[in-house]
Amino acid sequence: MAGFSRFLAVLRVFNEAASAWSVPDMADALGLPASTAYRTVRDLVDAGFLEAAHDGAYRLGPAFIEYDRLLRMTDPLVHAGAGALRDVVMQAHTPCVALLSRLYNDQVMCVADEAARETPFRSSYERGKPMPLTQGATSKAILAQLPTRQLNRLIGTPKAAPDNEVLRRELAEIRRRGYCATASEIDTGLAGIAAPVIVREAGIHASLSLVAEDTNLDESQRRRLVLLVVSAASLISEELRHRHSSTSINPPVPMPRRSVK
Amino acid sequence: MAGFSRFLAVLRVFNEAASAWSVPDMADALGLPASTAYRTVRDLVDAGFLEAAHDGAYRLGPAFIEYDRLLRMTDPLVHAGAGALRDVVMQAHTPCVALLSRLYNDQVMCVADEAARETPFRSSYERGKPMPLTQGATSKAILAQLPTRQLNRLIGTPKAAPDNEVLRRELAEIRRRGYCATASEIDTGLAGIAAPVIVREAGIHASLSLVAEDTNLDESQRRRLVLLVVSAASLISEELRHRHSSTSINPPVPMPRRSVK
DNA sequence: GTCAATATTCTCACTTTATGAGAATGAGAT
DNA sequence: ATCTCATTCTCATAAAGTGAGAATATTGAC
Question: What is the pLDDT of chain A when averaged over all its residues?
């Protein structure tokens, strides 16, 4: 391990349970010599990825907030979807959470979320949390739309993983219907309704989903929400498609030629 | 330039105006040989900091969303403040935006924001955007509470920067009052009311502020909001102080010893 | 399908750079 | 003052990144 991966290793020791670290503790945890650990941390602090907290403890730094904002403002999916999510929870007329989630490499991650007023629960899907690939309406709606080749790479070919036959059948059904509805698959008591947001040409494989309490939903409610989700999802897809076709690939501005030490 | 700084340089070419880059363009912009640029980008993609978009273009990647969530969940200030912001905009009973902002090195950055329902405007302060150090109620409320030594480092000593005399006097006044109110200093037509959130022992220098339309505020309104902001800010400070005194500095859990290639 | 034009990865000799043990210094606590 | 622990510094060593150019993959045009 060396070079870049050392920085990644240091960042990876931070998690929900251990969010403040002293340098010696990091060095111990990673098996690094003290001098290297100190240097690595100093570089990360200089770059804004870590921040000195107190008593020699370090926390994640402001660069993550800053880059997250930049991503929020420039990522076409997040940008196009955030407004749609607000509309969806408004028009749902019931306590619920709306989510926009994407395939990122081999995991699904929620990239935007919005809760209706007075919603007493929360989905375990939430912005920034990696989620299982094969469970929940949100993920399945995405998988169902993938080209066979890509799907095989993610869940294994039918031959290599025959136990995925059930899942494959389910995905085919979802593709036919155009949406996916599940109940208590991720959070017990909560139902999920998801519709795909797919823009192949822009490399976007995503879904829009609505999470509500299962017991609150009668059949007509459910149908109404399915319609809401499906139409909102296709609205987003349309906008993305349109934006993509009218966007140049290369940076529109000559770009700031920053000097680097 | 080499090693780590090459990664930083690549990340820095991304901004609001240029959010998708091809590798050759990056190489041009940074004066890097193609092979190095491709390698750097590949490493960043592997780490999740960049993502392949389409047609050889790259965007900021999911790692930023993920680490931002982690920070949101573990940073004591953000965690303690988010709830308070919701309360503040509720109790303001007027269209407004509440902000929680921090000193990070030599800039001020908003780390959490919340708008009241039906708020037709937005503050230029928003989560993740670095803001000027010496303008606006938000920043001044923070500066006013800094130890002399630290303040001198940021705005220069009275001798080195005598033109800051006005600012210094203003900050003294803010310290005496315990809050700062400004109008049209950042956004014309908007007024800001800010109170400090200072927890020295935890290394936190922050402020809570409320932004509303200046014309909407009569004197009694203004007094009410000042009270609201000041009390919310001290509530957050108290919680942070309490939490800090009851928190161990080192990671509570032995930590996951991840293997790195 | 072929072909040309790019985009991307690979190779490899060359150094620049990071590395880490240990010494030196700094900061706190008793 | 002294001890302890945290942090930085030094420097010989080795490892990693570097970059020109070749090799290969991809894409789009025809």
Answer: 88
Rg of the Cα atoms in chain B: 21
User: Quick check: B47 and B63 in contact, CB under 8 A?
Assistant: yes
For domain B4-65, give the fold.
Answer: Arc Repressor Mutant, subunit A (1.10.10)
pLDDT at position A62 over 90: yes
pLDDT of A223 over the 50 cut = yes
pLDDT of residue B112: 95
Q: Which one of A52-56, A216-220, A244-248, B220-224 scores highest in mean pLDDT?
A: B220-224
How many angstroms is C1' of D19 away from CA of B8? 19
Q: Does A169 touch chain B (CB under 8 A)?
A: no
**The tokens of A8 are what?**
């990644």
Those residues with Cβ within 8 angstroms of residue B228's Cβ, 6 or more apart along the chain or in another chain = B88, B91, B92, B210
Above 60 in pLDDT, residue B199? yes
Q: What is the CATH number of domain A19-74?
A: 1.10.10.10
Residue B152 CB partners (closer than 8 Å, separation 6+): B158
For residues B23 and B45, give the distance between their C-alpha atoms in angstroms, rounded to a whole number.
12
What span, in angstroms and rounded, lies between the C-alpha atoms of B104 and B228? 25
For chain A residues 34-63, those near strand D by a CB cutoff of 7 A are 34-35, 38, 42, 56
Q: Looking at the predicted structure, is the pLDDT value of residue B111 above 70?
A: yes
Across A63-75, average pLDDT: 95
Tally of helices (H runs) and strands (E runs) in chain B? 9, 9
What is the CATH code of the structural domain delimited by B75-245?
3.30.450.40
- Asked whether this chain's domains A19-74 and A75-245 adopt the same fold, the reply is no
Would you give the DSSP letter of residue B66? H
Q: What is the DSSP string of B144-187?
A: TTS-HHHHHHHH--TTT-GGGHHHHHHHHHHHHHT-EEEESSSS
Q: Is the model more confident about B259 or about A239?
A: A239
- Binned at pLDDT 50, 70 and 90, residue B191 comes out as very high
**Sign of the CA dihedral A209, A215, A216, A217?**
positive
Name the residue ranges covered by the structural domains of chain A.
Answer: 19-74, 75-245
> B147 CA, C24 C1': separation in Å?
31
Using CB atoms, which residue from A21, A68, A251 is nearest to B65?
Answer: A68
Nearest to A188 by CA among A209, A170, A213: A213
Q: A175 by DSSP, 3-state: which? A: helix
Q: When comparing pLDDT for B11 and B150, which is higher?
A: B11
Beta strands in B37-159 (DSSP E): 50-54, 57-60, 97-104, 107-115, 130-131
